[in-house]
Amino acid sequence: MSLPAHRSGLRAVLLGLIPLLMVGASLVSAPAQAQRVSPDFFGMHDANIAGGSVPGVAVGSVRLWDTGTAWSQIEKKRGRFDFTALDTAVNTARNAGLRPLVVLGQTPRFYASKPKAAGWYGKGASSMPKTISAWTKYVTKVAKRYKTSVDYQIWNEPNVVGFWSGSVSQMAKLTATGSAAINKAAGRRATVVAPSFPLRLASQKTWFKKYWAAKVGRKSIAAMVDVVAVNPYPLADQAPEASASLLSFAKRVLPKQARRKPMWNTEINYGLLGGDTAKSIPDATQAAYVARTLLLNAGASVDRVYWYSWRINGIANTHLVEDDGTTLTRAGRAWQVARGWIVDTDVSCAVTSKGALKGLYTCTARVGTNDVRRIYWKPSGGAVRVATSSTTTSSTDLDGTTTAHDGQVTLTVHDAPVMVSSRS
Length: 424
Hints:
This protein has 2 domains: about 10-30 and about 350-420, Immunoglobulin-like; about 40-345, TIM Barrel (Alpha-Beta Barrel), CATH 3.20.20. Helices cover about 25% and strands about 20% of the residues. It contains 9 helices and 21 strands. The strands form 4 sheets. It has an 8-stranded parallel barrel with strand order 4-5-6-7-8-11-12-13, surrounded by 4 helices. The radius of gyration is 22 Å and the shape is elongated. The protein starts with 11 loop residues before the first strand and ends with a strand.
């Protein structure tokens, strides 16, 4: 992510082998565009939500994907719709105070224009429907059923062949007809989310740009949807900061009208190899990845982040819950801690790009006028020692341990974020 360097108010001196960084209150300020982080920002996937379960960490929204609620799993026979699983998932989420995001698609095989097309949801599921009326009828039924009590996403990852074997123009057409059907059936206040796009491969980035440049008639994609969606998985050996760079890329290449839309991160985890088992990483690193993900997305003004997922299998390396499905891992506890740092605060972030401070990240979370939380981490290149503001009142590590202070304190900062509270 391209972030401004802040050097004012700093002086670096050598202290043994670790630089001592004097961090004044003016290091990072919260600009006018700092994002207010709402409870809905903290999103999750839970494959078992259609069975009545909810994630065991504090979240405000849930994405209904890999939950047995795809189009092909609802309309199993032509014209016959079984909403049992989707009803349960939506009601479970709403009863828990979570905002559901319904993902539309995949195509039932009997509607597929390519019934033999390979797809991760079965043959033909990745295909463009033979007739657009089948898609419109399905979307209309869903939107009439749930109205504005849920949000609606057009498709999942159309720039991945296992989810979509059609063209950019065909996905643009599905977006146009789907959006129109949702607005007609659920009302103009319904939230229509664009398809989600992974961006770690050059071909995926090209698809993303072509989609957002497409038009149906004379109408742009941005005029059809309310939210831009990306799944910014980095390469398997990369960290949250690489994912943040993908968010920056997405914002940079979007057409001007689309850049004005909210952006949601609809899937994120780390170590993905495209289906193979991910290489495991230490528990402490997993915890740091979770916290840095939440912080970087908040600082990038991403409105929601949906972690994939509550009970992830071996395809990713960062796990929130143990195999028993209830005991939080160190990463799961880090989710709770990091959420507590930034929920209902105004967040802005920066990374120093030059000099002795190069690579030091600082996020500032403001609560009112006299409560400032500065969160520091340095993901690579060795630790630094940071001397805090003279008004420091406490510091909290990622395990949730809080230490009281009365004025300036020197902290060792490495890859695990630490939060420092001060009066200004």
